[in-house]
Amino acid sequence: MGGAPVTAPHVTTLRVATWNLWWRFGDPDRRRPAIAAELRDTDADLVGLQEVWSRGDRHLAAELADELGRHVAFVAVPDPSFWTDRLGDDSFGLGNAVLSRWPLRDVRAEVLPTGGGPEAQILLSVVADTPAGSLRLVTTHLTPALTDSARRVAQVRALARHVVDAEPTDLPPVVTGDFNAEPDSDEMRLLEGHLTAPAEPGLLLADAWRWATPPARDDGATWRSDNPYVAARGDPPSRVDRVLLGLGRGRVPVGVESVGLLGTRGRPGPDGEVWPSDHAGVVVDLRAGT
């Protein structure tokens, strides 16, 4: 038979994760090996990290990058006193980071609106040139107080504006972070743009957990009552950490292959079991290409 040869589809799987590392709380030196082990086992191509400690020119993300063979970008919050006052130690800073299998470029940071609150939150935005094309990843950590939904609304508007204004990439933008908000909250409905008018016209940022299959679809809590750090507080479970995928953007089509959690168990340590963080993280396998 004649005709043009058929070209086999080219599909690349990219693993993206997000994780809050609980800053300097809960015996951080004991937790650090467990954090590294969890990230090594997850083996994500791109990871957005929140509550990353820094001290002088050192920070945890750089140490993890060296240990795991990753590239790194880090940005510190301008005023960490909201956090340092809780420990009585102002020698440490706090920020967001990205670990990447590939070099990072177009690294940007932006302070989010405080709304008159006590602490400033930030976003970190980077571009990685993956085998499937360029991809912008944004990671952030919104204000944590349960009563601060109005402040988070202002923060997600700034976050959405950043995504819209950023230089387009081959793949759709991916937004990761600890949003400190339930899925049906005002701030998350605005940011996703599915259930109300989006924070920026035409911007849809779909929660990757929508692609999860049962029984995970019905769970997905990242603030979990089976974590002893959470159980000690008596808090109910909550899904506050997310990987969001920009829909209808980029020239390379991207789909979600799988969604899961990381950091949902304790790990053996030299003096007994240790949980790496008070949060579980989210890990997503994306299928890029046609």
UniProtKB/TrEMBL annotation:
Highest taxon, organism lineage: Bacteria
One Gene Ontology cellular component annotation held by this UniProt entry: membrane
Organism: Actinomycetospora succinea
Pfam hit, one: Exo_endo_phos
Keywords: Endonuclease, Exonuclease, Hydrolase, Nuclease
Endonuclease/exonuclease/phosphatase domain ranges (all copies): 17-279
GO biological process, one term: GPI anchor biosynthetic process
Protein name: Endonuclease/exonuclease/phosphatase family metal-dependent hydrolase
GO molecular function terms noted in the UniProt entry: endonuclease activity; exonuclease activity
